Amino acid sequence: MLELKHIKKYYHVGGTETRAQDDVSVAFRKQEFVAILGPSGSGKTTMLNIIGGLDRYDSGDLLIKGRSTKDFKDKDWDAYRNNSVGFIFQSYNLISHLSIMENVEMGMTLSGVATAEKKQRAEDALIRVGLKDHMHKKPSQLSGGQMQRVAIARAIANDPEILLADEPTGALDSETSKEIMQLIQDLSRERLVIMVTHNPDLAHQYADRIIEFADGQIQHDSHPHVEGQKTEAFQLNHTKMSYWTALKLSFNNIRTKKGRTFLTVFASSIGIIGIAVVLALSNGFQKQIDKTQSEAMASMPVTVSQVGTDTNAMMTGTKTKTFSKASHVTAQTSDADKAQHVNHITQDYLDYLSKMPKKDAKNIAISYGTGMNLARQVNGKYRTVNFSTTNPDSASGVDARAMMAASTGVGGSVYPIDRSGKQSFLKTYYKVVAGHYPTQTTDIVLVVDKDNVININALKNLGFTVKENQSFNFNQLVGTKLKLIANDDYYQQLPTGTFLPTQDLAAAAAKPATKTLTVTGIIRVKSKNSDGLLASGVAYSAALTKSVLTTNDHSAIVKAQQQAKTNVLTGQAMDASTRASVLTMLGGSDTPTTVQIYPTTFKDKDRVLKYLDKYNAGKAKADKVIYTDLAGTVSDMTGGLMDAITYVLVAFAGISLVTSMIMIAIITYTSVLERTKEIGVLKALGARKKDITRVFDAETFILGFGAGVFGIVVAWLLTFPINSVLSNVTGLNGVAVLNPLHAVILVIVSTILTILGGHVPARMAARKDAAIALRAE
Ligand code: ADP
Ligand code: MG
C-alpha cells in the first residue's frame, strides 16, 4: 500500500545538522494499525508528515500503491492529501470560527462535493465517532475528547485509505484516551492507520504493529512487511476551492472578530471619507461657481454696439503731472470722444460670429433698430401701440413714436435665441409665472420683477388703461393679441410725396401680410441674485425683428426714404445721421444696432473675446469692430483657486488612503500569523496554495469593500452638517453634493487598494510550509 525507500530529511539550522529522517525504509499494509513509538525529537512527526504529503523528503522515494511520488507536482500532493489521507493531531486543530459540521465538511468542500452529499457524509462521520447529539454545537462548546472526535470525523469524512494520527491522545486523560484509541482501532479495520504515540501501553494494547523510532531511524519493527511489486491503479481527484467558499470562510472568520473588524473598516475608510467629502464639496462649489458665473454673464453679455468705446485708446492718453506754463489754451477732442469708435457690423462680421464655436456662446442676440407697426383692438377699436417703456402721456408734438423708435427701436427687450434653435436662454434664467414660454417668433412675453411688478408705461403703451398700483389677473394680460402691420399696409403716400400712417387701422390689420403677436406668458427671473437681464415690460425674440426687417426691406416708404434727402414722414430736412436712423427705424437697414453675445462661464467668455479679437487682427482701424466686455472686471480667480484647493485636499486624502492601505496590509499580515494553524489544517485537508491566497484575498475584499461602503455612507451623512454650516456661514445652500459616480468609483478604489495591500501577506500565507504551520502554537 505505502512504501518508504531510503527516505532522508535533514534540517540545517545555524551550522548544526538534524537528521530527522536518516535513511528510513519501511512498508505498510493496506489494512493495519501501526503505532510508532520513540523519544521526543526522534523524527516521528516528520515521518508522518512525509507519508501524508505535508512535508517533502530530501532523497529516497515514497511509493503509493507502487507508484513513485518523485514526479509529484504540488497539485498532486494537494489531491493526495485530500483524497487519500486523513490527519488527526494532538491539538485537534479545529477551525474555531466554523461550526462542527463545517469543520467536518471542509475536506469535501475543497474537493467540490455537492452540498447534499457533503452534509450526509459529514453527518455519517459524526455519528460514527459518537457525536450524533452534539452535531450543532460550536467547537468551543465541546470537551477535549469530543473535539478529537470531531477531528477524527473530519479525517474520515472523505473516506481516506490512510489515517495518520500524531499523538492523538497526548492532550487527553487516560479514560478518554482509551475511548479514542478504541475508535481509532475500530477505524483501522477498514484502512491503514499510522499513529505516533508516546504511550507504549496504549500502543501495545491497541496496535497491530509497533515501530520503534530513534534518531531518525527505525530501531525495531514488530511486524515488518514487504511490499509486492505490482502497481495498483489509482487516480487523484484534484482539489479546488471556489471563490464562494473562500468568501464564506473569510466572512465567518471576520464575523467572529466584530470589534476588530469594525475598527479596521473604520480606520481604512478615513481616506475614502476624506476624498469623498472633498469631491462632494468641490463638486458643489464648482456647480455654485458655474451658476453664479452663468447668471453674471447673462446680465453682462459681451456687447457690440454701433458705436463702441475703444478702451485701449483711452488708456494711451498720457497725462503729465505738472501744470502747463503756456500762456495760451489748446482745443482738443476729449479722450472719451477720441475713444469713440464707429463699428461697421457688416454681414461679414455676422457670418464670422455665426461660425463661433457654439459651446463657447450658446446665445447671441442681434437687435436691429427697426420699428414695428403695431396695433391693438381696444374696446372694439384699433389703436397704435408699442413696446416702449417711456411715458406715452409726456410724449407730444411731432411723430413721437418715430423719434422714440429712431433712437431705441421699437422698445421692449430682445431676448437671444439659442444658436442651436432652442429656447434655452429664457428657460435657463426665467421661470414662467403665467402662461408658457414662447414657442414661435410671433410669441411675446411680459417680464415682471421679483415682486411681480411690471413697468406701468409698458402696459400703457400696449393700450391698457392703467392706474398706479393697479393689479391685473394673469388672464387679463396673457393671451393679449397685437397686430403687426407691414409698412406697405401701414403707410400711405400722399400726393405731396410724404407718407402718413393709415387712418383705417382695422383694414390694415386685416391685410394678409399682417401678423398676429400673442402674449403667451409672464416671466420672472429664476435666481434671487440676478436682477432683470431683460427690462420689465415686453420681451420678444430677436427673430421677430429679423422677420419685420425682411418684410419691410423693399416697402415703398423705405425705397422713398432711400432716395429722399428729407424725412418722408414729415417732409423736413435732416442731417445724414438722423436720416440713417429714420431709415433704420423704417426697416431699410439690416445693419444690427447691437449684438449681444452670452457665454456662460468666464472661461468661455475668454474664448469668445479671443475669437472676436481675431477678427480685428490685421484690420485697418476703421474696419475693426470693438466690443464692450461688461463682465471684464469680474475675474475668473475663483475657478482656478477652487481647482488648486481641490487638488491639494485630494492629495491629502489620497495620502490617508495609502496609509489605510498599509494598515490593511498589516492587519492581513497579523491575521495570517494568527491563522497559521488554520492554514496548516486547510493544507492538510488538500487546499492548494491558490486556495489559501483566495481565502485571504476574500477577507481583504470584504474589508476593503466594507470600508468603501462605510466611508461613502459616512461621507454622505457628513454632507448634511457641512451643508448646514456652509449655509449659515455663506448663505449658499446644498454645496456639498456627493456624485453617485464618484461614490461607486471610491468603493471600487477602496476595494482594489485593500486587496492589493493584503495580497502580499496573503501570498506569504499561501507559501507557508504546511508542516511548519501545523507545528506552530
Ligand atoms: P518527533 O515528532 O519525534 O518529536 P520531529 O519529527 O518533530 O520529532 O522532529 C525531528 C527533529 O527534526 C527534531 O530534532 C526537530 O527539532 C527537527 N525539526 C523538525 N522540523 C524542523 C524544522 N522545520 N527546522 C529545523 N528542524 C526541525
Ligand atoms: Mg512529534
UniProtKB/TrEMBL annotation:
Tell me how this protein sits in the membrane: Multi-pass membrane protein
Keyword Iron in annotation:
no
Q: InterPro entries from the xrefs? A: AAA+_ATPase (IPR003593), ABC3_permease_C (IPR003838), ABC_transporter-like_ATP-bd (IPR003439), ABC_transporter-like_CS (IPR017871), MacB-like_ATP-bd (IPR017911), P-loop_NTPase (IPR027417)
> What is a GO molecular function of this protein?
ATP binding
Q: Which GO biological process categories is it annotated with? A: amino acid transport
- What CDD domains does its record include? ABC_MJ0796_LolCDE_FtsE
| Superkingdom of the source species | Bacteria
Span-the-membrane segments of this chain are 262-281, 644-669, 698-720, 740-758
**Cross-referenced SUPFAM superfamilies:** P-loop containing nucleoside triphosphate hydrolases
Q: Which GO terms describe its cellular component?
A: membrane protein complex; plasma membrane
What UniProt keywords apply to this chain's record, in alphabetical order? Amino-acid transport, ATP-binding, Cell membrane, Membrane, Nucleotide-binding, Transmembrane, Transmembrane helix, Transport
Q: Where in the cell is it found?
A: Cell inner membrane
Pfam families membership: ABC_tran, FtsX
Domain ABC transporter residue range list:
2-240
Return the PANTHER family for the record: CELL DIVISION ATP-BINDING PROTEIN FTSE, LIPOPROTEIN-RELEASING SYSTEM ATP-BINDING PROTEIN LOLD
Q: Which family does it belong to?
A: Belongs to the ABC transporter superfamily. Macrolide exporter (TC 3.A.1.122) family.
Q: Kindly provide the name given to this protein in its UniProt entry.
A: Peptide ABC transporter ATPase
Organism listed in the record: Lacticaseibacillus nasuensis JCM 17158
Q: What is the lineage of its organism?
A: Bacteria, Bacillati, Bacillota, Bacilli, Lactobacillales
